[in-house]
Amino acid sequence: MLNIQLDLLTYDWPLFHKCVYLIPATPFPNSFKCFTCDKAKDNYLCNRWAEDKWCPQHTHFCKTVHHFNTQGKSTSVTKKCATREECHAVGCHHRLDSGHMECVSCCDGMICNVEVPTNHTNAVFSVMKSYRKSDACRTASYSITIASALLLLLQLQP
């Protein structure tokens, strides 16, 4: 068995230099992405040209604002990463200034904002995960754990 392992380690793989290793990297724990666009003409164009980037660490949700006329035709779609505070105004209401309807929805999860809200049944705040601790508390507890481990290691060294 040992000979086989050594042979594998010393074997000159002919295509080894052409291998590409893809490591799924995220910028921080529990990171996520949302479709993002600012005042796109409709949902298709928003999703089609959405920039593929990670949401900032202080955000936890994807927010969608959909404006449409009385015939149901989209006039504007805005999608973004959002904080909990930005998601308090979900639902639909008639905009008196423009005569259009505005529906707002929020969700959590990787690119969860594919669709646009069109009525009160889908213009909601949809939460799948539980958020018991804030990121600040979690970061502080990680920092304390790491600091404690370092102190123990320093004490063990002669």
From TrEMBL:
It is a lipid-anchor; GPI-anchor. The keyword Lipoprotein applies. InterPro entries: LYPD6-like (IPR039457), Snake_toxin-like_sf (IPR045860). Keywords: Cell membrane, Disulfide bond, Glycoprotein, GPI-anchor, Lipoprotein, Membrane, Signal. It holds the Pfam family UPAR_LY6_2. It is found in: Cell membrane. SUPFAM superfamilies: Snake toxin-like. One of its GO terms (cellular component) is plasma membrane. GO terms for molecular function: acetylcholine receptor regulator activity. The keyword Disulfide bond applies. PANTHER family: LY6/PLAUR DOMAIN-CONTAINING PROTEIN 6, LY6_PLAUR DOMAIN-CONTAINING PROTEIN 6B. This is LY6/PLAUR domain containing 6B. The lineage of its organism: Eukaryota, Metazoa, Chordata, Craniata, Vertebrata.
